[in-house]
Amino acid sequence: MSKLIYVLNGPNLNLLGQREPEIYGTTTLADIERMVGDRASSHGLKISFHQSNHEGELVDLCHQAREKAAGLIVNLGAFTHTSIAIFDALSAVDKPIIEVHLSNIYARESFRHKSYVSPLARGVICGLGAQGYQLAMDGMAEILSK
Ligand code: DQA
After folding, report:
1. How far is the CA of 67 from the centre of ligand 1 (A)?
2. Which of 8, 35, 58, 132 could make an SS bond with 128 (beta carbons 3.0 to 4.6 A apart)?
3. What's this model's pTM, rounded to 2 decimal places?
4. Domain span including residue 137
5. CA–CA separation, 13 vs 19, rounded Å?
6. How far away, in angstroms, is 78 Cα from ligand 1 center?
7. Ranges of the chain whose pLDDT falls below 70
8. Measuring from each residue's beta carbon to the nearest atom of ligand 1, which residues come in under 6 Å?
9. Which residue's CA is the nearest one to ligand 1's atom 8?
10. What CATH number does the domain containing 100 carry?
11. In contact, 75 and 36? CB cutoff 8 Å
12. Which residues contact 132 (CB under 8 A, 6 or more apart)?
């Protein structure tokens, strides 16, 4: 059976393609789901793709991933910079985590420079737009093949 990769997207990412396209690009979240799903298939992996605007729902998804996922690719949006609850939930997941951001959070406002996810991540990709998700999937495949 194919290994399952949870791809978690946080608040406001449902608006991708419409929201601040000069920062986040014109690719929609549905486009990203298709692209990352295709990339997963090319590695013999499957995805379980989610977006939520609610912190508790993302915590629940981390708990689900703990049971079901071989690895996680996460873009937690603004919760990246604020959520100790999601940090705790991800800390309980003993699976590889790759953090993705469409924009380069280190070239933006200083409040985006702190990530609660990075200390738990095997790798971080930011600033490469939607392509970052595909690169994260390549990295995940490599990690899982070892
Ligand atoms: C983001 C960066 C975050 O700072 C921001 O709050 C987002 C999107 C990104 O993908 O660049 O919502 O995670």
Report:
1. 27
2. 132
3. 0.97
4. 4-145
5. 8
6. 6
7. none
8. 12, 75, 77-78, 80, 101-103, 105, 112
9. 77
10. 3.40.50.9100
11. no
12. 100, 101, 102, 125, 126
Residue 135: how many other CB atoms lie within 10 Å: 16
pLDDT of residue 1: 80
Among 106, 97, 98, smallest CA distance to 127 is for: 106
Neighbours of 59 (CB within 10 A): 19
Closest to 66 measured CA to CA, from 98, 44, 89: 89
- Please give the Cα distance from 90 to 97 (Å, whole number): 8
Tokens for 32? 């990203």
CA dist 72 and 95 (Å) reads: 7
Q: How many domains does the chain have?
A: 1
CA–CA dist 33, 36 (Å, integer): 5
Identify the CA nearest to 105 among candidates 75, 71, 61: 75
Q: Answer whether 32's CB lies under 8 Å from 16's CB.
A: yes
> CA–CA separation, 15 vs 13, rounded Å?
5
Residues shown for the chain: 146
